[in-house]
Design brief:
This protein has about 230 residues and is mostly helical. It has nine helices and no strands. α2 runs antiparallel to α3 and α6 runs parallel beside α9.
Length: about 230
């Protein structure tokens, strides 16, 4: 199924979003860091708090939405005939797109981390870096993208409009912001944004809640995706 999805993928929207959005977050964060370098004195750590604040708080959720909407727009342009005529179960298509989106998002996160390093090394002129903490945040962001992939996957089945999905992602970003500052774990990525901005590990209790919410949301929205696809 994954090979079939790779054949159907339209690269333009996904490639542009994947290249530009992590780059913008790094540029905004780097500019903000350079403008406040007198008060931000911890080099790599200070730069990370700036770029991760922009990326995880404002850019990442719309990036996930764009990837998902692009994957499902191919099916909608064909009137879902590839799925209707296929002998495979609907859930197979849902899971294949879920996995493909996860791969794309994971590559985006590696790219984001590479841009962060290049900015700090060649523009900030920082010395060597210990990547442990930054890899931790990247891995956590990939895991916490799972429920978002599930949520926007379900929405993209019911809503054919690419623009509406992206608009909803902006509303979802604001909702995540509001819940995270009340220490709620419903939108785990927004909670991670706060922890990342404070450059600290997530404690065991909060991590357990994040995992519980994330897995529950994945199961729920995969189920809804299957149902939505059956009703289309």
């Amino acid at each position: 199924m994954l090979k079939l999805e790779l054949k159907k993928i339209k690269l333009v929207n996904i490639l542009l979003a994947s290249l530009i959005i992590p780059l913008l977050a790094n540029v905004f964060g780097l500019v903000n860091y350079m403008g406040n370098r007198g008060s931000l004195t911890h080099q790599w750590q200070s730069l990370w708090t700036q770029v991760s604040l922009f990326y995880f708080s404002f850019f990442f959720i719309p990036l996930v939405a764009i990837v998902i909407a692009s994957l499902w727009s191919v099916e909608h342009r064909a009137g879902l005939k590839f799925i209707r005529l296929s002998p495979k179960k609907n859930i197979s298509f849902v899971l294949a797109k879920f996995l493909l989106a996860l791969i794309i998002i994971s590559l985006c996160q590696v790219y984001f981390l590479a841009l962060f390093y290049l900015g700090g090394r060649y523009i900030g002129n920082f010395a060597s870096i210990n990547f442990n903490m930054y890899i931790y945040y990247i891995l956590m962001s990939i895991f916490l993208s799972l429920p978002l992939i599930g949520i926007f996957g379900a929405l993209a089945i019911r809503i054919r409009s690419f623009g509406i999905i992206v608009l909803l992602s902006s509303a979802f970003t604001m909702l995540g912001f509001a819940t995270a500052y009340r220490s709620l774990k419903v939108i785990g990525l927004s909670f991670l944004a706060i922890e990342s901005n404070n450059f600290r590990y997530i404690n065991a209790h909060d991590l357990a809640l994040l995992v519980l919410f994330a897995l529950g949301e994945v199961v729920l929205f995969l189920y809804l995706s299957k149902k939505f696809l059956s009703y289309e």
